Amino acid sequence: MSMTAFTGARVLDPERPEAVCESLLVASGRILQRLPADAALPDAARSVALDGRCLAPGFLDLHHHGGWVFDPAPATPSSLARTSASLVHHGTTGFLATTLAWPQDELRERIPGLAALAGAASLPGAEVLGIHLEGPWINPQAAGAQPGGIREPAPAEFDELLALASGTLRMVTLAPEIPGAAQLQARLAERGIVTALGHSLADAAEVADAIDRGATHVTHLFNAMSPAHHREPGLAGAALADDRLSCDLICDGAHVHRDMVRVAARAKGEALVLITDQIEVPPARAQTGFASFGSGGVYDDGTAVRFEDGRLAGSSVTLDRALRNFSEYTGASLLEAVAACTLRPARVLGIENERGTLREGARADFAILDDAGRVVETWIEGRRVFGVPIPA
After folding, report:
1. Phi and psi at residue 170, in whole multiples of 5°?
2. pLDDT grade, residue 290 (50/70/90)?
3. How far apart are CA 111 and CA 99, in angstroms?
4. Which of 116, 145, 264, 323 is 20 to 30 Å from 276 at the Cα level?
């Protein structure tokens, strides 16, 4: 059994209160053992000297649209491969392939291609952890940038999509106030699929009912939802107040004001997750219309993706950029920011024993960072997939 020893690491363990200097011993793609920095290493271990750089779990993105939203369904494998390869440049080792509120025929056509690559070893970098359906069962009055396929849940359609997803559907964002939402939630709960509340104008009572039915998460806090008001908390206020809900947030400096990021961090604490909501706009097509986004073109302004009239259509932030923003806006330590990109999203999906952690026995998926939180290298199952090799 070949072993690799990561030595001289400043370990950012999201389950510990502060960084520690340790060595990690990796074998067969798993964390075999964590050792004090001065401990003797097995003679057979290959050494990777990190020289004081930070070692964190690989980042996990619960909400990533990639470039496949612009491509026809048959191009999904090549689109996902490009996304997989690009994400490791930013420390991301796993992501949920996130859909749009497409019409029924289009959604039916696209799901099998996404499902086929979930967990696929053929991808060159970050792994597809599963599918996140963002809609189509949302409130049309809180559509945000979602296209025109919004509709009420129909049991037959959900069962068909579930079959097409072949066990890879991990999260569904829905509006709990629309007709049929309660029945859809029951189906999700039966199958252990995360119900996330979003694109919704639910009031506090409707949010409470949805939580009682098993909702556990909120999609892009503050965006495309009923706002907090001192006499009616709305979805945003209820999400901040209820400890049963985790929340994710787009920390790109455009979707949420930095003061509201601080409010969210104080209210949610360890239940706040950073996401990208990233859309990879093909440069050659940026000024043309797309069925997915209506008749207007979209463009990347360097921070967010916008329609030609300036409205937000998504983000271009990466998780490493988001964690640096989070630290800047809130004063959080690099370790605290790392937790919001690793352990916390893993907990949302119930995979915290496997990913987003540095526990012995977990996958050896690492992001190697400098002191400013910039990604130097990315490793997946003990293999370097991004970065210039660090001299031994």
Report:
1. -110, -25
2. very low
3. 9
4. 116
User: Is 35's pLDDT higher than 80?
Assistant: yes
**Helix, strand or coil for residue 90?**
helix
User: What average pLDDT is seen over the chain?
Assistant: 94
Taking the C-alpha atoms of residue 189 and residue 213, their distance in angstroms, rounded to an integer, is 8
- Selecting among 71, 248, 277, 300, the annotated active-site residue is 277
Name the token pair of 306.
């916008």
Burial of 88 (0-12, 13-18, 19+ CB in 10 A): buried
| CATH number of this structure's domain 3-56+357-386 | 2.30.40.10
CATH 3.90.640.90 fits 59-349, yes or no: no
Phi-psi region of 313 (alpha: psi -120 to 50; beta: other; left: phi over 0): alpha
The answer to whether the beta carbons of residues 222 and 161 sit under 8 Å apart is no
Neighbouring-strand partners of residue 10: 21, 54
Question: Looking at residue 147, what is its pLDDT?
Answer: 84
Extended beta strands in the chain, E state: 3-11, 20-27, 30-36, 46-49, 54-57, 59-66, 92-98, 127-134, 169-174, 194-197, 217-218, 246-250, 272-275, 278-279, 298-300, 304-307, 312-315, 366-369, 375-380, 383-386
Give the other-Cβ count within 10 Å of 331's Cβ.
Answer: 10
pLDDT tens string 114-159:
999 999 988 999 999 999 999 999 999 999 999 889 999 999 999 9
Q: What CA–CA distances, in Å, run from 72 to 181, 203, 279?
A: 29, 37, 15
Q: Does 277 qualify as catalytic in the annotation? A: yes
Beta pairing, strands 312-315 & 304-307: antiparallel
Q: Is 211 helix (H, G, I), strand (E, B) or coil?
A: helix
Summarised one tens digit per residue, pLDDT across range 39-81 is: 999 988 999 999 999 999 999 999 999 988 888 889 999 999 9
What are the φ and ψ backbone dihedral angles of 161, each rounded to 5 degrees? -65, -40
Return d(Cα 335, Cα 184) in angstroms, integer: 37
Is residue 102 within 8 Å of residue 114, measured between CB atoms? no
Domain coordinates of the chain in residue numbers? 3-56+357-386, 59-349
